[in-house]
Amino acid sequence: KTQTGTLNWGTDPTYQPFEYADAANKPTGFDVELMEAIAAKMGRTSNLTSEAFDGLLLALEGKKFDAVCAAMTITPLREKEVSFSIPYYRSDMGIMYNPAKNNITKPEDLVGKTVGVQVGTTGEIDAKLITGVKVNSYPDIQLATQDLENGRIDAVVNDYPVCTAYASTHPTLKVIDTTSIAGQDLTQLYGIAVRKDDTQLKSDIDAALRKVVADGTYATLYRKYFFADPPYLPK
Amino acid sequence: MIKWSIIFDNLPFLLAGAWTTLTLTVASMIFATVAGLLVGLLNMFGGKVIGAITRVYIEAIRGTPALLLILIVYYALPRIGLNLPQFPAAVVSLAVCYAAYIAEVFRAAVESIPKGQSEAAFSLGMNRAQALRHVILPQTFRRVLPPLANEFAALIKDTSLVSVIAMQDLLFNAKIIGARTANFLSPLIGAALIYLIMTTPVMQWSRNLEKKVE
Amino acid sequence: MIKWSIIFDNLPFLLAGAWTTLTLTVASMIFATVAGLLVGLLNMFGGKVIGAITRVYIEAIRGTPALLLILIVYYALPRIGLNLPQFPAAVVSLAVCYAAYIAEVFRAAVESIPKGQSEAAFSLGMNRAQALRHVILPQTFRRVLPPLANEFAALIKDTSLVSVIAMQDLLFNAKIIGARTANFLSPLIGAALIYLIMTTPVMQWSRNLEKKVE
Amino acid sequence: MLVVDDLHKSFGSLEVIKGVSFDMDFKERLVLMGPSGSGKSTLVRCINWIEPPSAGRITFDGKLVEPGKCDIRRLREDIGMVFQQFNVFPHLTALQNVALGPIVVKKTARKAAEVEAMELLAKVGLSHRADHKPGQMSGGEQQRVAIARALAMHPKLMLFDEPTSSIDVELIHEVLDVMVRLADEGMTMIVVTHEMGFAKEVADRVIFMDQGLIIESGSPSEVFEHPQQERTLSFLSKVLLA
Amino acid sequence: MLVVDDLHKSFGSLEVIKGVSFDMDFKERLVLMGPSGSGKSTLVRCINWIEPPSAGRITFDGKLVEPGKCDIRRLREDIGMVFQQFNVFPHLTALQNVALGPIVVKKTARKAAEVEAMELLAKVGLSHRADHKPGQMSGGEQQRVAIARALAMHPKLMLFDEPTSSIDVELIHEVLDVMVRLADEGMTMIVVTHEMGFAKEVADRVIFMDQGLIIESGSPSEVFEHPQQERTLSFLSKVLLA
Ligand SMILES: Nc1ncnc2c1ncn2[C@@H]1O[C@H](COP(=O)(O)OP(=O)(O)OP(=O)(O)O)[C@@H](O)[C@H]1O
Ligand SMILES: Nc1ncnc2c1ncn2[C@@H]1O[C@H](COP(=O)(O)OP(=O)(O)OP(=O)(O)O)[C@@H](O)[C@H]1O
Ligand SMILES: [Mg+2]
Ligand SMILES: [Mg+2]
């Protein structure tokens, strides 16, 4: 049920810098502030519910909330279940590794190695594109990173900005930027997911997102979380 | 290895999670106990068909991982039109799960009353319902408390499964702190200690009650 | 609501997960039983200091959610130099967890032997070790089987927690199928049925053994 | 008042009562003896249908006992039973134990039931124990509460199944005293016991059972002093020697 | 051979034996009687230190029993004990029950121990039961296995704690017969029992206990026929009446 007063949306707040708990342990991040801005443009208040990443779309379908904004890549498979807003972010794939143990400069270096990914992410799908890689799927990206530091795995494949955010607090780790694996373009576009039958909400969100871009809020947020000017603007 | 400062600095956040854990446990326990008593009585005295249905329910629940059950209940409820908010949905899924265990607790307690007790009641001319109400159940309640307390402690622990699907309980918050501070172990140890503070007295109480019953 | 075709089409994948679940359970159970016997005996007969240490271990484990323990063991062991590959690490963390439960199973079994048995052994001039070896333990083993079988069933279920350490067990594979087919409920139901097929005979066996012991 | 006719009882394939017939009059006192496993308890429990017989007929107080046709619960109101293990209700005081039957089954007012319960407790010498729970009582006291509890239903027949064999040797007489007094007052009763003194003093008839059959029956002096059967003799000699 | 001197035993704050002294000679047969809770079992269990006394001295076979100084386990080898609840080992056959003590404690060769165990089983009339486990035996048979098990250690003194009071009334004589034969062979023994017949036939001395003290002691005829104490008289009258 869509409540008019609030925009109920779900995310998995274990994904720095998109959604995570700040020092006061309040959920924050690029997605969180973006959704607040979008909700404001829609004349609503943002109401966030936490959910494990691989259960997000299920919960959306179960109407536990009405939208999902969780650094979620728009894929054809997901588009079969839900509608996405216009893309609000473009990302490359990052490969995070421990330079003391491995030297990885390109995706092909992962052959014969064990790679950690978060279950249900595009990172998981992409890592499996390389033949000869053993993929370990973790319920959240912290656990994968933890195991990378423990040395059980050789690399973590995940969205590039997330990897860099992580490496900034884990100086032993390094990240390389990847745009293609096995000839496949890895550039990803993130979207806000809504239920297929919720066409009104989709168009409302699209309109609000365009307004957020138009008035410069988007660029401000981007600089705040990614320390650069946005290379891509939603349209 | 363990940074106590991380635990200490984030104690309010951990305690907020613990509060969720506790309210969730208490609410679920209440529903599970009522449902468990009902299911247990129906299973023992409800006749063949109802007895068989409740038996299947009890055995299916007891044979399946709680995590899986919670996922099923949690995600299936909306499909049958029960679109509950997060907290009530979690309560329902835990209660559905624990009612089966608690039904067995009640059954075991009733069966532990010596046969001579109901025979004595029958020999006075009581019927089944009278014997149950005046002789068996009053004796059952004392025996049921220790295992119920045990189920309560188990439920405190099993609420951690809800972190996997949705709720910001103690374990979930510990993981969030882990993510933010890049120190995974310390908040988990902190959470473990808080779980112990919640479960140990309950388990000890259960043991004391058990000794008293004997 | 439940699409049986999804379960059927993905049965090999589910069964592969079930195989992981099963091998993990068996391997963990072996280690947990050996460790549990050891911890139980040390707790009962190891003297004051060792008795207290093992008691703290047992109580700490029993009071903390298994999910949390597995996270701690799995992610903390490498920091103390125990950098095991995934499967052995999962076995170790489950065994560490279940050893505590199994130690209590052994303790309960030893305590259930009537005091008169050890008194009779002492009255023949046996010392503690001889009484334990020739009189108490042989009687314990029969009594220990039903609860051990129960722990085995519980372990089958608790292996579902290892999806948090990236093991592709039955539940994990079910969730993957759910993500791929956009139908969560069906593969979860399929997994539940497979869990039941694994746990129900074990629990039934445990009950039969229990009746025999009585 | 009681006619047992060709009674049979099997547990699964094990036939425990193999055709027992006897009848007894109002105010008669019958003592049942026999080796362990001979079926004494089973026979007694068949009489008030706590163990439904497999075959045979029981007539009580002129009426044929047939489940479905007559009300087994009414029958049980008329037959009091005292068990070897007392089976007093541990959660109730002595007074509540005695008053429960009338209150629940006969729907007697609580006040009236408790007044009568006090009288019955006085009769079995337990006035001072009215507010105690069974856990605080000796075996002899518990068994006397059980007797008072049965009497509270005003039974026409009392069944006693080894009422003294779970009681400390020096407390047995307390219970036997109460039973002797009951007999003196004219209560009809069937008593399974190996207390020879009681049997000699009280019994109108002694029935000796072996392997599910009555093998001997007669007055105490007939059975104890001139047993007809080898088996009776050997049993008696063992019990007396012990 | 046994001197018990001012023995005390407390459980927590409850003093159960309040200063008991007696001594007995080789081949003497002593019967202990007294009401429930008077401390008979506790006294007997103190003698072989299964219940360590709180105070007092026990001298056995000329040696003062002091833990630390003498070997309590050696003492126990010399003192056989038979329990009310039999306490036979349920996982072993009758033969293994009897042979276990010698094999484990005396390190006797299995073969030799089993040969002697067979002889002892024959002595208690159980040759045909050698390969049966206790679960398949009657109470009387189990208790006879327990006696044979104690005898296998060649004890100098046998303690019996109400050996017949958990046994069906018609099987009691089996056990008493064995005990009478043992006495006839000259075994030194202390028997807690309320079997008057056995006491009269076998006892050299009857000791009567009440509330943790010996209140009367003498030959069976002295104690049974001319008790000096009120308490003894009242107890005996109750037991005999029962
Ligand atoms: N509920 C039951 N199920 C199966 N067998 C039973 C049951 N009750 C009694 N029996 C068997 O029936 C036989 C007779 O038992 P019963 O208790 O009537 O004997 P008893 O003469 O009262 O013996 P005792 O003196 O030991 O009380 C025994 O072999 C007993 O094992
Ligand atoms: N292990 C124990 N702990 C506490 N109290 C005990 C213990 N053993 C015996 N007692 C108490 O000591 C007293 C004497 O008990 P004991 O068993 O020696 O008496 P008894 O003369 O053998 O009685 P009975 O004829 O009932 O066997 C009783 O009050 C009993 O409750
Ligand atoms: Mg009987
Ligand atoms: Mg005693």
From TrEMBL, chains B, C:
GO cellular component terms listed in the entry, alphabetical order: ATP-binding cassette (ABC) transporter complex
Superkingdom to which the source organism belongs: Bacteria
CDD domains named in the record: TM_PBP2
Main localization, broad class: membrane
Domain ABC transmembrane type-1 residue range list: 18-206
UniProt topology in membrane: Multi-pass membrane protein
A GO molecular-function descriptor: transmembrane transporter activity
Cross-referenced SUPFAM superfamilies: MetI-like (SSF161098)
Record-level GO BP terms: amino acid transport
Transmembrane segments: 20-44, 56-77, 89-110, 184-205
Cellular compartment(s): Cell inner membrane; Cell membrane
Keyword Signal: no
Function, in words: Part of the binding-protein-dependent transport system for glutamine; probably responsible for the translocation of the substrate across the membrane.
Family: Belongs to the binding-protein-dependent transport system permease family. HisMQ subfamily.
The protein, known as: Putative glutamine transport system permease protein GlnP
Protein source organism: Candidatus Cryosericum terrychapinii
TrEMBL record, chains D, E:
Stored InterPro entries: AAA+_ATPase, ABC_ATPase_HisP-typ, ABC_transporter-like_ATP-bd, ABC_transporter-like_CS, MetN_ABC_transporter-like, P-loop_NTPase
An MF annotation (GO) of this entry: ATP hydrolysis activity
Transmembrane segments: none
GO cellular component terms listed in the entry, alphabetical order: plasma membrane
Pfam families: ABC_tran (PF00005)
Compartment list: Cell membrane
Main location: membrane
Family, per entry: Belongs to the ABC transporter superfamily.
Protein topology in the membrane: Peripheral membrane protein
Domain of life (superkingdom): Bacteria
Keyword terms, alphabetized: Amino-acid transport, ATP-binding, Cell membrane, Membrane, Nucleotide-binding, Transport
Protein name per its UniProtKB record: Amino acid ABC transporter ATP-binding protein
Domain ABC transporter: 2-236
